[in-house]
Structures are given as structure tokens and as C-alpha cells.
Amino acid sequence: MAEGRGDPPPSLQLLSSPPASKRPCLRPAPRGPGPGPGPVFPISRPRCPESLLDCAAKAVAEKWAFERVEERFERIPEPVQRRIVYWSFPRNEREICMYSSFQSAGDGLPFRRGIRLLETGCVDNVLQVGFHLSGTVTEPATQSEPEITHRVAISFDRCKITSVTCGCGNRDIFYCAHVVALSLYRIRKPEQVKLRLPISETLFQMNRDQLQKLVQYLITAHHTEVLPTAQKLADEILSSNSEINQVHGAPDPTAGASIDDDNCWHLDEEQVREQVKQFLSQGGYYGSGKQLNSMFAKVREMLRMRDSNGARMLTLITEQFMADPRLSLWRQQGTGMTDKCRQLWDELGALWVCIVLNPHCKSEEKSAWLKQLKKWGDMDICPLEDGNYGSELPNITNALPQSNLAQELTSFMPRRTVFTRAMEACDLHWQDSHLQRIISSDFYMSPAYQREGESLLFNPQGLPLWLDHVPTACARVDALRSHGYPREALRLAVAIINTLRLQQQRQLDIYKHQKKELLQRGMTSTTNLEGWVGHPLDPIGCLFATLTETCRVEDDNAMDTGDSGEPKPPVYQHVPVWGCSDGGESYLALALEVALMGMGQQRLMPEGLYAQDKVCRNEEQIVAKLQELELDELLVQTLRKQAVLLLEGGPFSGLGEVIHRESVPMHTFAKYLFTALLPHDTDLAYKIGLRAMRLPVLESTAPSGDVGHPHHGISIVPSRYPRWFTLGHLESQQCELASTMLTAAKGDMLRLRTVLEAIQKNIHSSSLIFKLAQDAFKIATPADNPPDITLLNVALELGLQVMRMTLSTLNWRRREMVRWLVTCATEVGLRALVSILQSWYTLFTPTEATSIVAATVMSHNTVLRLSLDYPQREELAGCARTLALQCAMKDPQNCALSALTLCEKDHIAFETAYQIVIDAASTGMSYSQLFTIARYMEHRGYPLRAFKLASLAMAHLNLAYNQDTHPAINDVLWACALSHSLGKNELAALIPLVVKSVHCATVLSDILRRCTMTAPGLAGIPGRRNSGKLMSTDKAPLRQLLDATISAYINTTHSRLTHISPRHYGEFIEFLSKARETFLLAQDGHIQFAQFIDNLKQIYKGKKKLMMLVRERFG
User: What distance lies between CA 712 and its chain's CA centroid?
Assistant: First the structure.
């Protein structure tokens, strides 16, 4: 039987150079009758046991290359050949799915489209010749595209597809829908596929005439494609010295692979490179990050199927990652990569750990991987494990002087890249006998007589332990699970959990002996230097996923072709732990327990923004997984037990009584515990929440027991706080925990008081306390029910604390906070409002107290809201007036007007407020404030008081000659109009002030004109007589104003002529016209104006054009 050597494209098959050794086309011994036209596959009967031939053929077809079978046996009967060829095609649709779609669902994916093509009868002309399958797949016509038929060819070997060709020209990592449709047709309908033995077998049965006829017919049918190739081959065969005649036999593309060929699924390496490069170039946008994560998931899927393409595909991905041009750019600029990109690199590193920990990989493979990893790791652009470029980053830490010890520590720290852990994992092996027994048996235990005393291999119950660095041990679990050994992974995971349990108990015993000393110090230096949550290898997430995977209720419709919507949350069921003696253990309960252990571990906050952000993100991921568990009695029991242990765990627990100042806070974890425990054990839930509320890193000084940061060795930043980049997020989580507890404590005065005290003690951010106050207020005042007065009081107390915290500091939300507090106090009642009015100086600025607080309290809406009677209204008004007067005394500039307004209805208070204004007028009040109050007084019917205040305001004003648009002009005109309306005496008193303060000619002329238009004293002040005569500009007080106006015009004219430009000549002539109008008000005004013009002509005769314009207008 001739040998197959792959399946090159049809146009190149005859040009391919044959390998050195060939199986001969001719056989020395005659075979039986040929296969003839070839029957189709026999129809298998349901429930019929397989024959021994089929059992053997299945095993051989999966494991042996057909060339090896031919070498082993001199003659293979044709029925045996048929069954081997039959069983050599892949049998599992999931394998086809793996190579045609990402794991994410969607109707547009090739696998689902292939199923639709198959089910709608689009596959036809299916023929299997040896290890080669061909057929046609027709794409139905659409509105925009006509019907089109594609020719599909598939080569396969040992239940793997080794090459595919499709007329659609698909360029993708995955098989197209047409290849999927043909493959599934062969898997689902094998009885409808015509089967032929490899073509060399058919040729062997032909005589010379038949062979010649076959070749000539073949050339005739495809003469345009194969005629040149046929002639070339004929020439070589006829030449005795040609290379083709030196080789025994001839190639057969339908005869399967040779012994030396790699037995792996077809993977288009070039397309993998191109797509990864394209996704990276998009920088995480347009869903590229999701696509790359899907490619990583595909690698894990391949590993789980024990497909060698997993490592091959990851190598291709890594090569493109290392070729990313942004790496060198980030390094040159000293900036960190984006979070999305950083997460992709983390997953890349974790996958390589899985690859090298393959329990059945050969030492040569591991050596090759180690060599490649070292090559990548040694490159300067290789990202570091901590997410930065180490000491090369120009940040504040490097700008500060470092001690010699700090420099030495930095110099001795090895460079750890994202591949370092994978390189370290290359030194791990699976030959340990204890480890082998753990993963190979569910019933591996120590004999009962050996269970007394300490043991490093078994716990007191005889169950096996695995004492290893926890993240490394979990990496082994992940490797077993990833490489398709779920049962073994579960066994090792259980051993690790038993080890953690024993360590937890021993740590508790140690703490009990040291408890008194640690509590006296109030702080501990004992904590884990390497946290499990946020670790690059994600040990807790790995154990949790391994344990819950076996408990997950699978959806039987996972391969269905129906429309796929949002992913459904997983459903879990309890699965007993295999080999457990008491039968009470469940993998689901173990998953919950190990997650609680990991989350509750006391650990130091790592250095660096990325590492700290990763801790927060990993916490949230684990909590999200925990929230998917439906808590039943067994899980609640586990939850309770672990919560108690964490509370009693001392320095080994993040919820213990004593923690290191820089321990990772437990707020996110405690919020989950509180919510989960609340329906089952309220007291325990509140103990957890109150214990976790703390945030020691924000305390001003560390107690004497704090021996420093053992992880850092030395603080190189002389700061009160360490560099916690995620502090804002941590504080918001602390606030979320407090809000959850406040909500739960509604109606319980004692618990509310306890939670309130914890908030006041531990939360240091005014904005977060304000948020808590708002949350409490919202919960306490539901729309459909009466308010909860206890929770309202808590909201008010929190609001008062915010007021005190922000009184002397700038806060852009301060006005909002003040308004909210008044609203809250109004909801609480009269006594709350009276209290804040009486103690305003500890809560508000004088301006806030008068303009917001007192004004709101005195409003009609507040009276209606509280349904106050007359004595209550008077009490409230009295407090508000007292506040107003106190504020006016303290800050008259900003509070005087508000005080007058608030005291309007009380004569004594109003007079007191007015006197405060008069006293402050000469010292600290501006003219604008005094004018505003003066206008208010006139509006309220106090014109004489208004005049007095206006006079005081004029004394503070200074209006220059060129300030003809000054905002105070309207006030000056109003003050003059007021004094004019009051009478000649008031006008005479004001005009000297105006002349002294106002030097703008146009303003003075406007005042003069207004005063001459009507008689003074029109305000009708009681007890005064109005003469009704117009005032003359030749007599006082207007004479003084006229002289000042003329003088202002003369001075202004000279000032303007100093720097005048031709474009302003016209405007200047108009100005002189207005000046003439004022001059003419005087008896000798025309003479004065003429002299003025003559002086201008003489002084500014150099400005000929301007003087010409002056002569034209004024002579």
C-alpha cells in the first residue's frame, strides 16, 4: 500500500518532491479481489456490541501511524484496512468545535454556521479515499449574494485533522464553516460516506492498459492544470538517471502519515501570528483584549484535550507579544503599560507555568521551553513581574536620597520578569513518591497506628498533606487541571486544603500563647510577606475553580445551535469528596472554605500601583465567584466556622484582633461575609463588620509595637503614610461596608449606635462620611412609609461630623453639605433645628449660617413641613435672629444684609443689626456692601438710614477720570437721586463727597443734569416742606458740583490728548461737544469754553488734523 505524506494543494501535489523512502506501489504477493466500486459504511445497529475487529481497529487508528502497521505486518487483509481507515477520522465533535470557534457563544461562529449548513442539506458529494475526505458545501443564496458551492478537502491521521483546503479561501486561525460542515457530516453520517481504500491500492489492481487509460483521462479532464506537470514527470521517469527513479515507490496523499510525521491537528501558524499582531496593534480597543483572552482560553482548551498544539500556539502568541513595538516605547519613556495589556501579560506568564508543569512532558521539551523562556526573559524589553520597569522608572522614590542599605537591597534584588515563575517551575518535577500517591488514589491515608505525634506527610486524621509553597502547590493543581487531569487535580487540591487547615490551627495555638503580649502592643509585625490574593499565580482562584468545576451542573445544550443570549450564572451541587472517611466533606464546601482562608489571610500591601490594583481586582473577582454560590445549611456551617476562626486568628488573620499597620484591609471581604452571615447569625455578622471597619494605615502614628515594614526592609520615602496608590478605592470599600451595615441595622438603636461609633472612629474622609449620611437619610425616609427616627438621627450625627471636619478646610461640595444638613435636621424635628442654630459656630461659617441655614429654617416651607404652632415658630425665629446678630458681629461684610433681613420682624433685633452695620462701616465694609444695604434700607422704607449708609459708602469710593463704565456708577447715581429726593440739605451734604470721590467728567455731568431737572425734596419726608423750586447751578450746592465737572472735563481732555490716535479723533470731538454743554451751564460758560479751546489750539498745534477738526466744530 502506498504511503501518504500530507496533502499539498491540488495544483502542487504532482510537483512535490517525494521523501527519501517510499512504500512501493507494486506488491510482491497478489491481493484478493479489489474493492470494486466500494460499498458505503455499514449501518450500525443501536446497542449492538462492537466486534473485536472494530475494537482493535479503533485502538490502532488512534495510536499508530498506518506506515507502522504496514511495516509490522507483511499482509493486511482488506477488511482490516477498511476498519482502520474508517476509525482514523476524528470522532468527537468537541474537537472540531475547538478548532473552529472560540469558547464564547454566538451564531456567527464557524462551528454553529457549519452545523446549520449540515442540517439544511448543504453538504454533498462526500467521498473518503483512504485518509482523505472530500466533498462540496453549498452556501445558500442571500439577498445580496448568489448561491455558491465550495470544494472542501480534509486530510487526517490518528483521529486528527492534519490539513484542510477549502475553495472559500478562508484566512483565519480556525476552520471555516464549510470544513466544519464536511467534518460533522463524516462524524454524524458515516454510513452515507463512500469509502475507498487509499488510491495506491486501487492502482495496484490495474493492468498497464487500465493505468494508461486512467492517466490519459485524468490529463484530459484537467489538461490546463496538470498537463505541464504530467509531461515533466513523464520526462523524469523516462530518464534513467533522474532523481525520481532513485526512489523506491511513489507518494500517495490518501495513504496517511508516515512514522516520522508529527501527529497533531492542523493549525495555521501564519494566521495565529497575524491575528495576534493585529489585536496587539489595536492596543486593547475594539474588543481586541477580549479576543486575546479568547486565544488564551483556546490554549487552555487545547491543553485540557492534551493537544500538543497548545504549547505551539502559546509560543506563537508569545513571539508576537515580545515583538510588540510598544514595549520598547514604554521602556524608553519609563512609563508602565496599560492595565489591559498588563493583565494579558500576566495570563501569558501563568500559561507558561502550566505548560512547563505538564506532568507528562519529556525532559527534552522542558529543556527547550526553558531555553526559549530564558531567551525572552533576558531581553531588555521583557516586562517585569511587578508591572513596572523597576528602578528605571523616574518616580518620586528615585528622586529621594536613599540610604546605603536601601541601595544594597535594590542591587541584590534579582530581575523578575513575567517568565521568571515559569523558569522556576522548570525545576519542579512529579517524581516525589508521596505526591504520586496523593494524585493517584482517593484512599491514600496513613495507617492508624502511625497517627500519633507530628507528621509532615499526614494530618492527625491520617489524610495526606502536601507541604509546599502554597502558590507553587496550587500551580501544580492548575497544571493538572489544565492538562486534562481533573481527578488528580482534585486530589492534590484536597491535600493542600488539609495542609492549610492544619497550619491555621497551629497558628491559632501559637497566637493563644502570645495573645497577651500582642494585645498590649496593639500591633504586630507578624504577617505573611506574600499574599495569596493578587498573587501572579492566583492560587486561591485556582483552587476554587478546580473544586467548583466538579460541582457545576453542566448545561446539556452547550453545543446547541439555538440563539445564545447572556451567559447564565453557574449552578452548583454538592459532590462528596472521594475517599473521605466520614462522608461529610463536599468539594463545594471546600471551595468556599479555601476562598475564605485566602481572602482572610493577613498580608502586607505589596509595593507598586499595578500590584496593589491587582490585589483589589482579585478580591472582587473571588467575591463575585462566592456570590454565585447558593448558601445551604452545609455552606452556612462552613461560613460560620471559618468566620469564627478568622476572628480568633490573631496576627495570621486579617480579621484578627491585632494586625500590622500596612496589612491589606478586609472591607470588601467583610462586606461579603456580613451580607452572607446576616440572615443566619446576626451577631457574628456584626462582629465581622465592626472588626473589619478599621484602616490602620491612615492612623496618624504607628504604636510602639509596630516594628516597621518587614517586607520593605527600609522605608525610602520619608512619609507619614506608605505609598498606597489604591487608597481612594480602599476608602470607598470601607464606606460601602459601613453603608451596608447601617442599612441592615435600621430600626435597631443599639446596633446603629455601635456602627456609628465605628464609622466615627475609623473613617477619615469627609466626602465618604457625607455619602454615608446621605445613604442613611435615604434609607430612613422611604417614600411610602413613615421615617425611621433612629436612622435619621444617625444620618444627622454623621452630617454634623462632616460639618465639623470641613469647617476650616476647602471643599467644593460644602454648600451642598450645608443644605443637606438643614434638610436632614428638618426631618428629625424642631429640637434638631434649634440645636444646629444654637451651635452654629462649630458647624458653619457666618455666611453659611445666615444665607443658607437661618434663611432655610425661617422659610414658610419649613414651618409647614414641621407643622409648628406659634410658640414653636417664635422659638425658632428667636434662635435664627440670635444667630444672625452673632454672625453679623463676627463677619459684618458678608452677613450684615442677611442679618437685617432675618431681623425685620423684631424691632429691637433690627435696630441692633443696623447699629452693627453702622459700626462696621468705617472699618471693614466695602462701598459695594454698603450701597447694597443702603438700597435694602430704602426698599424697606428707611430713606434717611439709606442716605446715611450711602454717604458712608461714598467715602470709600474713588472713581478715576477714565472709569466711565465702573460698576459703582449706578450706585452713585442712585445715592445722588436719593439725597435729591430727600431735600436740599441732604443733597448739600452728599455733593462734597461726590466731588471728592468721583473724577469722571461724564458721570459728574450726568449727576449735575439730573439735579437740575427737578426740584429737591420730592420724597415727602414727614415734617418737611418742599419749596418746589429748581436749583440753580450758580448757587450752592450745585455750584461746587458744576466747577468740579468743568475741571474734570479739562483734566480728562488733556489726559486723552496725550496718547490720542487719529482713529479716535471723531470720538474726541463728540466728547468736547458734551463738555461744551456743561460749560454753558455756568453764567460765563461760553467765555470759559472759548478760552479752553484756544488753549488747546496753542498747546496741541502740532496735531494739525485734529486742531482743524476742532476749528471746524467750535471755531
Answer: 28
Which residues on neighbouring strands pair with residue 128, listed in sequence order? Answer: 133, 195
Per-residue confidence (pLDDT) for residue 594, from 0 to 100:
96
Q: Residues with Cβ < 8 Å from 1018, sequence gap 6 or more?
A: 980, 981, 1026
Alpha carbon distance 109, 26 (integer Å): 46
H or E element, residue 153: strand 148-157
Per-residue model confidence (pLDDT) at position 339: 80
Angle between helices 587-600 and 486-521 (to 10 degrees): 40
Q: CA 792, CA 826: separation in Å to the nearest integer?
A: 10
CA–CA dist 252, 19 (Å, integer): 11
Rounded to 10 degrees, what is the CA torsion of 1017, 1019, 1021, 1025?
Answer: 30
Question: Distance (Å, rounded) from C-alpha 233 to C-alpha 245?
Answer: 11
CA distance 298 to 304: 10
Task: Give the DSSP H/E element, type plus range, for residue 1056.
Answer: helix 1038-1058
State the CB neighbour count (10 A cutoff) for residue 527.
23
d(CA 966, CA 557): 80
Among 842, 857, 852, 746, smallest CA distance to 802 is for 842
Q: Decide: helix, strand or coil at residue 72.
A: helix
Q: Grid coordinates representing 741?
A: 451595615
| pLDDT < 70 positions in the chain | 1-47, 102-108, 172, 257-263, 284-288, 387-413, 448-454, 518, 521-527, 555-567, 579-583, 700-722, 1015, 1017-1029, 1033-1034
CB-based burial, 12-47: b 16+ in 10 Å, e otherwise: eeeeeeeeeebbebeeeeeeeeebeeeeebeeeeee
132, amino acid identity: H
| Max CA separation in the chain (angstroms) | 151
Q: In angstroms, what CA-CA distances link 700 with 256, 651, 714?
A: 76, 21, 19
What is the per-residue pLDDT for 99?
75
The b/e string for 140-164 (b: 16+ C-beta within 10 A; e otherwise) is eeeeeeeeeebebbbbbbbbbbbbb
In this structure, what DSSP letter does residue 785 have? S
Q: What is the 3-state secondary structure (H, E, C) of 627-653?
A: HCCCCCHHHHHHHHHHHHHHHCCHHHE
DSSP states of 813-825:
THHHHHHHHHHHH
pLDDT at residue 286, as a whole number = 58
CA distance 588 to 551: 6
Contacts of 1028 (CB under 8 A, 6+ apart): 1015
Instruction: Tell me the pLDDT tens digit for each residue of 161-173.
Output: 888 888 887 776 7
Torsion sign, CA atoms 384, 388, 389, 391: negative
Residue 949 CA, distance from chain mean position: 60
β-pairing verdict for 148-157 and 132-139:
antiparallel
Ramachandran area for residue 960 (φ above 0: left; ψ -120 to 50: alpha; else beta): beta
Which DSSP string do the residues of 386-418 spell out, in sequence order? TSS-GGGS-SHHHHS---HHHHHHHHHSPP-BT
Q: Residues 200-209: pLDDT tens digits?
A: 777 877 888 8
**Cell triple for residue 266?**
492542523
Residue 814 phi, psi (nearest 5): -60, -45
| Count of H-run helices and E-run strands, the chain | 49, 5
CA atoms within 13 A on the CB side of 758: 24
Q: What is the pLDDT of residue 525?
A: 60
Question: What is residue 28's predicted lDDT score, i.e. its pLDDT?
Answer: 32
**Residue position matching grid coordinates 446603629:** 752
pLDDT of residue 522: 63
Q: H/E element holding 373?
A: helix 363-377
Q: Report the C-alpha gap between 135 and 253 in whole angstroms.
A: 16
Coil vs helix vs strand at 431: coil
